[in-house]
Amino acid sequence: MPPNSVIIVGGSIAGLLQGLQLKRQGSDVIILEQDPSKERHSHESGIQIGPSRARAYERPSHHDMSNWGCLFNLLRANFDGMASLAVPDPPGPKPGDGKVEYRSGKRVTGLVDDREKERVHVHFFDITTGEKGSLGADLVIGADGIHSTVRGLLGAKTRKEYAGYVAWRGAVPEHLVSKEAVDALSDRLNFFFLGKTYIVSYIIPTEQGNIAPGKRLVNWLWYYTVPDNSPEMRDIFTDVHGKTHPNTVSQGLVQPEIWAELKSRFLPQMLAPLAEVIDATPRPFVTKVCEAQCSRASFYEGRVVLVGDAFTALRSHLGMASEQAATHCAQMDRVWRGEVSQVQRDREATLYAGKFLLLNRLVGVFGLEMPWAVVRTVVAYLWLMIMIRLGLS
Length: 393
Description:
With 393 residues, the chain is an alpha+beta fold. It has 2 domains: 5-157 and 295-358, 3-Layer(bba) Sandwich (FAD/NAD(P)-binding domain), CATH 3.50.50.60; 160-289, D-Amino Acid Oxidase, Chain A, domain 2 (2-Layer Sandwich), CATH 3.30.9.60. 33% of the residues lie in helices and 27% in strands. It is built from 11 helices and 18 strands. It has helices spanning 13-24, 51-56, 68-80, 149-154, 179-185, 231-236, 256-266, 272-280, 321-336, 342-367, 371-389; strands at residues 5-9, 28-33, 46-49, 64-67, 100-104, 106-114, 119-126, 132-137, 139-142, 158-173, 190-193, 197-204, 217-225, 248-249, 285-294, 298-299, 304-306, 312-313. The chain starts with a strand and ends with a helix.
């Protein structure tokens, strides 16, 4: 049976998918999100709509590309009725839905397990007012991303590492580039290999869900090798105000001279449509590519569960982050239905993570022409498959 009360830490895609599913099953759900803003910053990023997310929406299984902000607004509309330009008239609750709240600006500081009452208490404070609070629930879900606070509070053993390269990212409104460039990049994923660096591009809707030709966005990701702790790394992650960022330099904060120098080196090597799109990008941003893998998926006899990037953060090459989050939804649904135990579900999540962590890594090191890393990753993947087949993993 689904739990009566749930607290979800993290209000992005993974948290909203879990929250919406539990709401529909009658659970009362409170989401605690650290970001105080009502509208989350998506950077106009692309996102893959794969089979697991299609099942979450009870729609036919297929692959397509969307906009992170658009998907976020769609989920918020269905979770707590938040209106947006994407969903100006959100649907009301359905019969049997649980009560829900989405509380922004709440930073979690502690977890206390009450084993006798089989409840977990979550301590937090409001980052705007400083006011402290505490809530209790039958289940706590940690959906707070690669730098998970919940995972840290649990002291969960986690392997976390920088992949050795960064991802420059951006999106350009179609009307800012030529029709020829848009036509050349439409209706497919495009891969461009430039020798130890590569770029992926595809068309996505706007945050408002506009899919009309001429209104859409041309989205791209550029994987670029940067040694950790190098002068180049320091320069890239120092913003226009001189502040050094640990993981991401957001839109509008990238130093123009850093971006201009990178373009001057590589634009002459690119095909004309891609070069035009990248040159026309108004506000690129850059983030370190990392992966993280936690040794456990649940704690306190299943009363705390890690999902999405909080459990395993995959490299971004196959666009699997939200697909993994939706897979975790399907897995937890089977637990509520009594089809599998929490232990069995955790094993499924661990095997899924191990498989796709290696596949994403393989795509990255292949595209960046790292031959020894390719060999090591292929061997590791084959070994994992053998162990799974023998029932030893």
